[in-house]
Structure formats: structure tokens, C-alpha cells
Amino acid sequence: MTSSGMNMMGKIIFYEDRNFQGRSYECMSDCPDMSSFLSRCHSCRVERGCFMVYDRPNYMGNQHFMRRGEYADYMSMMGMSDCIRSCRMIPMHRGQF
Questions:
Q1: How confident is the model at residue 4 (pLDDT cuts 50, 70, 90)?
Q2: Do residues 47 and 58 make contact, with C-beta atoms less than 8 angstroms apart?
Q3: Does residue 96 lie within any of the structural domains?
Q4: Residue 56's domain spans which residues?
């Protein structure tokens, strides 16, 4: 993939513990069920792009929009439980409006 194609992809990293500690899981595209990768999620880092995260598998339940940045104590900040179970990358718009 070209470097310009890589820049269009999103990247989010979920961590089991606060302050980016514990086991981690990295996503660069949609993930319908993350429960086999992490038992809980207390922090995350969005390195590229934007994502919608959900507290149930298959993009169901409560959802939160995540843009580029670091969320060291994401769960208490957003008022979610400790279970993010799916995420979907929001594609970047290319072209004219």
C-alpha cells in the first residue's frame, strides 16, 4: 500500500487498563467483536482517523465518537462501562463537496 493510502486508514489502540497499560488491541478497520481480544477497556489512543465505538458486538448498543487523541481514562470520562465490544472506522471524505 502506498504511503498516501496508509494515511487514509484509521488506527485505534485499546488498552485494558488506565493510562495505556495492560494488554492492548490495535484496529485499523471495522471490528464487529473485540471480546476475544480484550476483557475490558479503560483507555485508548486514536492515532489516525475517527472511529465509532460500541458497548455491544456487531455495532450495537451505546456508541461514542472518537477522534484523534489520547484517552487515558476513557471509561470514566465518557461514562461508559468497561466493555467496548465493537468499533467501526469512519471513512475520511475524499474529493469535492
A1: very low
A2: no
A3: no
A4: 11-90
Report how far residue 92's alpha carbon sits from residue 74's, in angstroms, rounded to the nearest whole number.
23
Q: Could you report the per-residue pLDDT of 33-72, keeping only the tens digit for each?
A: 998 999 888 899 999 999 999 989 999 999 999 999 999 9
Residues 59, 88: contact at Cβ < 8 Å?
yes
Q: What is the CATH number of the domain that holds 75?
A: 2.60.20.10
DSSP character for 93?
P
Give the number of other Cβ atoms within 10 Å of residue 20's Cβ. Answer: 17
Whether 4 is in a domain gets the answer: no
% of the chain beyond a pLDDT of 70: 82
